[in-house]
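Example 3.2
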Amino acid sequence: MNLIRLAWKNLTFKPLSALLSILLFALSIGLISLLLSLRKQADEQFDANLAGINLVVGAKGSPLELTLNSMYHVGYATGNIKLGQVKAFFNPKHPIVADAVPLSVGDSYKGYRIVGTQPEILDWYGAGIDRGARWQHDFEAVIGEEVARVNGLGLGDKFRSNHGIIDEGEEGNIEHDDDFTVVGILAPSGTVMDQLVLTTNQTYWHSHDDHADSTAPAAAPEAGHEDHDHGPGPGEHDHAGHDHAAHEHNHTEDHAPKSLLDEDPEKEITSLLVKYRNPSSFQALSFPRNINENTDLLAANPAYEISEVRRRFDSGQQILGILVLAITIVSALSIFIALFSSLRERRYELALMRTMGAGRGKLFVLIILEGLMVAVIGYVLGIMLSHGILAVLASNVQDDFRYTLSATRFLTAEYLLLAAALFIGFLAAVLPAWQAARTDIAETLTR
């Protein structure tokens, strides 16, 4: 009988004791793997969605909420700002601002957010067109890869938007009357662009002119959201000075929307994404403070705000890390105790093996193999546990935040974790193996 088979027989001789050691070891490996995967994928998504953006400008409120809503499309807008307040940012001769992209947010399609913006935002996020072309005209839409895949949309398909950031079928879900046409589908980019529907800012104003007395994109109810009167009264026109039939004719004409510099300064957008000419210059460093102190706008530094989120995440991870360390120590002790206590019952068996020609080294290897078997089985179960939990989390994160976590992705660190698991199994078995190798044949058989 070879040593591996004999080691397995020894483990299964007392299955409950071996099972306890394996489960404790699997729990520690699973938690370590889960923390590594969550940290890696969260960091990648945070970094990818920063997109080199230096500043987010919006309505007064929480800078973190402004950053998360404008760049990660989580939560609600802090409010709206007038176009006239930020027109200076679009000036190509601005001494600090190299480029600025406006965002109009507040509507959705089956839970996926519709964003009124300009096509250059795709270059910022490194998102390319897989099929079709970029949007140029009002009510043309470019959709993310996930939006197309989940909803079965293709080029030329039409759909209608819903007022507010709500899922399809929710109570109070109000559908706009205008049809969007899919003109482009994005290639997967691993950024928030995968989960967005992109169109022009003017499309937002047209949609809300039809349904509201305000031209503003929808903001969060908590942030002072204005109630919209959906549709003008009988015989009335909306504040844009045209009825729905006239609007239908307007947005189907083949012409590009006007430049935002030529638009009415009273029009509203949700926020503005800004890139600096020289981020390290003194003027750029003091620019957000000047905006916050001297205007009615809020300027948020996305890198700083996301670093705060990471700091909070790290604090929770450290607490979990301490728990994982404690479980790992207990699991190693469990392996040690199980192997050491079994030696008392197996002394006669080990002595017989010695009389049959097994040397001290063979007995040492036998016990080491038992410790390594526990480690390997615990590692496999732990990795399965980790990725099972990750699959459940991925589903919840997908439903709540439209963010993607992959349960099938394996990190390099997880393979290194196998080496660590084998080392712990070896370490826990060394002392029992040494004791087994020192078994005195004559004394044991005499007893």
